[in-house]
Design brief:
- The complex is a heterodimer of chains A (159) and B (273).
- By secondary structure, chain A is α+β, with helices and mostly antiparallel strands.
- Chain A is built from 5 helices and 5 strands; from the N terminus they run ββαβββαααα.
- Chain A has a 5-stranded mixed sheet with strand order 2-1-5-3-4, with helices on both faces.
- In chain A, β3 and β4 form a beta hairpin.
- Chain B has 3 domains: 7-53, Uridine Diphospho-n-acetylenolpyruvylglucosamine Reductase, domain 2 (2-Layer Sandwich); 58-173, Uridine Diphospho-n-acetylenolpyruvylglucosamine Reductase, domain 3 (2-Layer Sandwich); 181-272, Enolase-like, domain 1, CATH 3.30.390.
- In chain B, strands 4-5-10-6-7 form a 5-stranded antiparallel sheet. Chain B has a 4-stranded antiparallel sheet with strand order 11-12-13-14, with helices on both faces. In chain B, strands 1-3-2 form a 3-stranded parallel sheet, with helices on one face.
- The longest helix of chain B has 22 residues, at 251-272.
- Chain B is globular and about 55 Å long.
- Classes of the chains: A alpha+beta (159), B alpha+beta (273).
- At the A-B interface, β4 and α3 of A face β1, α2 and α6 of B.
């Protein structure tokens, strides 16, 4: 079927098999390979992207379900001048990653959280990241990064 | 891992969805958020030839106050239930239980209707609607009918819905008082299904993952009605149940968990009153 998805502000139009998953549409059709396929079973969160502004696991969404909608991947977070998103900067500053495989999904889950809850407590951050697994178990720095990003992320949204 | 090939169709109204379902008969399945169905399709446990996407039927997404009851549209997501200020006041049990389903990403997509028709005995919301004495409204080619939550869940992944029928609304009588409730969910990891779960609202108690369907803990309810305290009533939590044995625990362990969790639920519910 023909699907048109706005990905990071750019309209991507393609004729894809009906069973195409959003994550494969993003990686193979749009050529955006930062979004990883981890578990493929809605558990690990590596494939998390924003669909109409909300975090979703793109391995469990059909491209057809995203037809006509707006998707943001980690490649779309930097602003027009290429400056990284506050959450990305905080992951770098706090060393919120080890191998990096879960990072795109973690960052997108954090962006969605801070959009819904601009000033979360540590406990709220931990519970908001329940759907994202880090096999390096580097959770402490990830939580630190999200807490550190909150004020700047909130400023960016209001500017 | 991708599903077997199928034909995707999109409905823009409930009438259109029912019409499409009549055309394709038993080969078709409705797709709401897809968070129960798509994983099953990847594993080839479900191989529908046609998916009818009802995900854009805004007419099925609402939480409304209707005098003595609350009406919930089947397509309302777990996240919307968890954030509903109406539910926070009138049905805090449902709002809280919805906030404990899966994880944030799953709650953004998964719907109450999808969870109920999937009828997994390990899922949270089937036991919640059972404890709340909800009525489920199904629409089919012949019109609407109401099904009591107690009759809706008929077996493992089996409901009273007929082929071509669509769950459209959940009607929940407002509990009085609304504040006497508890939701207990025992898991190894945060996002897991409950090994055992307990839902209590007033004197009504339902159990998650203690049989082929969600079940009411009738012996506990009878003991409470006869004046037993939480601990004594909870001793009957596993009476009449047939819990599964699996990698997370055998049936004896589940029976023990049920007694412990029912006691906690009844104590928490009483403390809230």
């Amino acid at each position: 079927m023909k699907v048109i998805v706005t990905v990071n502000g750019r309209q991507i139009e393609a004729d894809v098999p009906d069973r195409t998953l959003l994550v494969h549409f993003l990686r193979d059709v749009a050529g955006l390979t930062a979004t990883n396929v981890g578990c493929d079973t809605t558990s690990c969160g590596a494939c998390t992207v924003l669909l109409d502004g909300r975090s979703v696991k793109s391995c469990t969404v059909l491209a057809a379900q995203a037809d006509g909608r707006d998707v943001v991947t980690v490649e779309g977070l930097a602003d027009g001048s290429g400056a990284m998103h506050p959450v990305q900067r905080a992951f770098q500053a706090e060393h919120g990653l080890q191998c990096g495989f879960c990072t795109p999904g973690m960052v997108m889950a954090a962006v969605s959280l801070l959009d819904e809850n601009p000033a979360p407590t540590e406990e709220e951050v931990r519970s908001a990241l329940e759907g994202n697994l880090c096999r390096c178990t580097g959770y402490h720095n990830i939580v630190r990064a999200v807490l550190a990003a909150a004020p700047a992320a909130s400023e960016r949204r209001s500017s | 891992m991708i599903p077997a090939p199928f034909t995707y169709k999109r409905a823009w109204s409930v009438d259109e969805a029912l019409e499409l379902a009549t055309q394709d008969g038993e080969d078709a399945k409705f797709l709401a958020g897809g968070h129960s169905l798509l994983p099953l399709m990847k594993l080839r446990l479900a191989v529908p030839e046609v998916l009818i996407d009802i995900g854009r039927l805004g007419e099925l997404s609402y939480v409304r106050d209707d005098d003595s009851q609350i009406l919930v549209g089947a397509l309302t997501t777990h996240d919307e239930l968890a954030r509903s200020s109406l539910l926070a006041g009138e049905l805090p049990l449902l709002a809280h239980a919805a906030s404990r389903v899966g994880d944030p990403q799953i709650r953004h997509r998964g719907t109450i209707g999808g969870s109920l028709v999937h009828a997994d005995p390990a899922a949270d919301l089937p036991a919640v609607v059972l404890a709340l004495d909800a009525t489920l409204v199904a629409r089919g080619p012949g019109g609407s009918r109401e099904i009591g939550a107690g009759e809706f869940f008929q077996g493992l992944f089996e409901t009273a819905l007929q082929p071509g029928e669509l769950l459209t609304e959940i009607r929940i009588p407002k509990p009085r008082p609304a504040g006497e409730w508890s939701f207990q969910k025992f898991t190894k990891r945060a996002i897991d299904w409950a090994i055992v779960g307990v839902v209590a609202q007033g004197g009504r108690v339902a159990l998650v993952n203690m049989g082929q369907t969600p079940v009411r803990a009738s012996a506990v309810e009878q003991a409470l009605a006869a004046g037993a305290g939480p601990r004594d009533a909870a001793a009957h939590a596993a009476d009449g149940t047939s819990p599964p044995s699996d990698i997370n625990g055998d049936s004896g362990y589940r029976e023990h968990l049920a007694r412990v969790l029912v006691a906690r639920a009844l104590e928490e519910s009483a403390a809230r009153a």
